[in-house]
Amino acid sequence: MSGIGPVESVDSAERDGSYEVIGGDSPRLGDHWHTLPRRTRRAVLAAGTVAAVGVGAVLLPPFHDGRQENPTPPVPWPANITEWRYTGLAQTTDTPTTTGFFRFAVTVDSGPPVAIRVTGAAFDGLTAQAVPAPSFTVHTGATRRVTVEISVSDCSGLPLNADLAFLDVTLRNTRAIQHHSFIFGSAYSKDLSQLLHRACGTTNARPGPRPSGSAGSQNVDRG
To answer: Would the pTM count as exceeding 0.85?
Structure first.
């Protein structure tokens, strides 16, 4: 770099008020910056920082972490929130009969109400339905007492001694309709076996396959 005249420091230029520009280019911001008093430069830097922060706040989009403050939980599957418990026979008899009445307590633990319909009982040759209404609804937190009428329609394929007998039901809420089997233990199996003996004891009833229920069987009553 070449030119005429001495190169003075910024401090000396501030004292005598002169500053010589070296070269023939037009004054640039960087060159003019050094001619400003120190107090002025500090004020400009401070104002520029505030302006930059303000522009960034306007231009940058609001930050979201993808989580809602109060996310709504999904509606549960009806089979996951419905419980059945066997409570005993609605009536007893020692006379031959092809129909029995069995009592259950049905509870819905959470979620919306569940509409229920009993569709079958354990083995082919049996029919089952809730009475007096085939379909009923259970609300959340409530327990409903239900009577199920089970009738023997065909003894030819029925075992006289039921083991882990179950009920087939249809469950419906606002999420889904599910076909489900609820398995019960010794108390229900014993009472159902008595019905089978009364209805088919004098016929040629033969052992049938062990009931297995559906893939969604649950709630074994071991009482």
So the answer is: no
